[in-house]
Each structure stands twice: as C-alpha cells, then as structure tokens.
Amino acid sequence: MKKKILFVVTSHDRLGNTNNPTGYYLSEVSHPWSVLISAGYEIDFVSPKGGKAPAEAVDLTDEINKAFWENSVY
C-alpha cells in the first residue's frame, strides 16, 4: 500500500475586496507533486470549499507545471 499525502490548497479566487484574481501558485504544488509521485507516494488534493481550486502563476513553459496541469488525475 502506498503512503498517502494530502495537499490542501486555497479556495479563494479573489484577493480580498480588490476583485483581483488569486489562487495557489502552480509551481508550489507541481514541483513537490513531481518529487513525491516519483518517490511512490499517492497524493490527494483538497480545498476548503471543494471543487476545482483556482490556480495562479500558471507557467506552462515549465515542464513540471505542464505535466501536472495536463495530468487528468489532478
């Protein structure tokens, strides 16, 4: 049985009362995900409100970000 990790990311898609978009930084999730998956861990992602969590700073020229973003499991 694989060891499991739980990632909790934000549900907030707006920054305070500014109406500016926000979310989790993709690299802060994708890079640890890559290392942990390679080490054999199973990862579950959740957010306080559930559903799809908003991402920010999505740089798909970064190969790890792209692999995470295009992974249908996450």
Explain this structure.
This protein has helices spanning 26-38, 63-69, and strands at 4-8, 14-15, 20-21, 24-25, 42-46, 55-56. The chain is α/β, with parallel strands linked by helices. The strands form 3 sheets. The chain has a two-stranded parallel ribbon with strand order 1-5. Strands 2-3 form a two-stranded antiparallel ribbon. The longest helix has 13 residues, at 26-38.
Short description:
With 74 residues, the protein is an alpha/beta fold.
What descriptors fit this protein?
two-stranded parallel sheet, alpha/beta, globular
Task: Specify the number of helices.
Answer: 2
Strands, total number: 6
Computed CA radius of gyration, to the nearest angstrom: 13 Å
Rounded to the nearest angstrom, the distance between the terminal CA atoms is 20 Å
Arrangement of strands in the largest sheet: 1-5
Strand % is 15-25%
Indicate the structural class. Answer: alpha/beta
Q: Strand-and-helix sequence, N→C?
A: EEEEHEEH
Q: What is the overall pLDDT average? A: 91
Question: What is the percent of helical residues?
Answer: 25-40%
Shape: globular
Low-confidence stretches: none
Write the layout of secondary structure elements.
Elements: E1 4-8, E2 14-15, E3 20-21, E4 24-25, H1 26-38, E5 42-46, E6 55-56, H2 63-69
Parallel strand pairs: 1-5, 4-6
Antiparallel strand pairs: 2-3
Helix pairs in contact: 1-2
